[in-house]
Amino acid sequence: MCCCCPPAIEALFCLWCKSGFSKSAVAGALTFFPPDPPLYKFHRISKDGVQLPEFEDDVIVDSDDDSSDDDSNDESILDQSDLEYESGTPSDRAKYDDMKKKRSAKKKGKGKKKKKSSDKKKKKKKDPAAQLTERNLKLRKRAKTRNSRDRRDAATKVKYRFEPDPRLAKPPRFSGSMEAVKIGPQKKTGAYVAAVIYRVRKDKLTDRTKTIIYSHGNATDVGAMHYISSVLARSCNVNVVAYDYSGYGASGGIPLEANTYRDIKMVYKYTLEQVADGDESNIVVYGQSVGSGPSCYIASKRENVGGLILHSPFMSGMRVLTPSRALACLDIFPNIDRIKKVNCPVMVIHGQLDEEVDVAHGVALHNAVKADLRRECWWVPDRGHNDITDGPGKM
Predict the structure, then answer these.
(1) For residue 324, what are the CA distances in angstroms to 12, 23, 303, 328?
(2) Are the C-beta atoms of 179 and 229 separated by less than 8 Å?
């Protein structure tokens, strides 16, 4: 790159080259920023009801599979050693315990030697290209760790208990049930998606009870969305399936555009079979901000879905940065094209004071919906991008 190029552009160019000219790697670096640490915990519970120890994301890596960030269409296949390790036999667990002890001892031995070198590294500020590359490698390593752990948990029938961050606001009491699940594995990436299901009480269920599949915004997760999910379930008497994208929260995989599509396809199938009793017309897809991407995608693929709600949506990822189509080759989430193929009722919600995604995006999407499927929009006069549901009278 030339000396006059801005550091950010140079960083993206370097990442693009190092990733094998992958558009998804660049788009992922620009688009996805999962909360770190997550704003909730999925406590692991054995089939006997005993809470299992929590593992750090950098402790277990037992697979060399790199498919978690691959955009090709080949399906990954677990080798025999993976399947044997997942079986959960006492000998396997003993091997794991031994491996964990060795790793711990090795880290302690190197701790003193690394202290001086780490102090020197702190003084040197990393350039943007190095930061992006390091972040990408960290996400890939974490994906392998989580995928392997989730495979073993599935094989040994581990269940989960959802605990939102105690610092978050507590929602009004919800009389229904709340269930934490891992949905998967995804055939291509091997990832499991973390989801929280809010179910209406059985005595309140009817043949017309709706189920909302909630795809959240960028820098958040199902922990942060616990309040709004509870309020939706309680006030609208609906089931809510809130899930985290690959690389977010307790989900495996890494955050990429292609992976969000894989995620919502898995979640949709699970919801249809396990929550909506096989009736697609009772499923409403709800996408907020970045979540409008996978929501428009699945709604354009499923002709019988009951409805689509877009909350602070954008026409496409690159159009948020610039109306120019010069960088169209790097564009993601082409909602403005997909919305024309949607065959269910569509409602658009957008704050008129939105400074992150201009309300013009919402207007354009609303106008692009087929006329007979266009529902009354809600242009909120005194709200921006993230505060539409804040305060009395909003939600």
Answers:
(1) 19, 18, 32, 8
(2) no
CA distances (Å), origin 58, targets 108, 123, 142:
15, 25, 6
The total number of residues shown for the chain amounts to 395
Cβ atoms 295, 285 nearer than 8 A: yes
The Cα 130–Cα 18 span in angstroms is 11
The amino acid that residue 309 corresponds to is: I
Q: Which of 69, 82, 354, 358 is an active site residue?
A: 354
CA distances to 40, 48, 187, 193, 197 from 43, in Å? 10, 14, 25, 15, 15
Bridge pairing between strands 40-45 and 177-183? unpaired
Share of the chain above pLDDT 70, in %: 72
| Active-site entry in 19, 230, 251, 289 | 289
> Is 289 among the residues known to form the active site?
yes
The amino acid sitting at 170 is: K
Known catalytic residue at 251: no
Whether residue 385 lies in the annotated active site: yes
387: Cβ–Cβ under 8 A, 6 or more apart, which residues? 351
CB 143 within 8 A of CB 63: no
DSSP 167-230: TSPPPPP--SEEEEEEE---TTT---EEEEEEE--GGG--TT--EEEEE--TT--TTTTHHHHH
pLDDT tens figures, 119-162: 555 555 666 667 767 877 888 899 999 999 999 999 999 999 99
Residues 6+ apart with CB under 8 A from 344: 299, 303, 304, 305, 306, 307, 308, 373
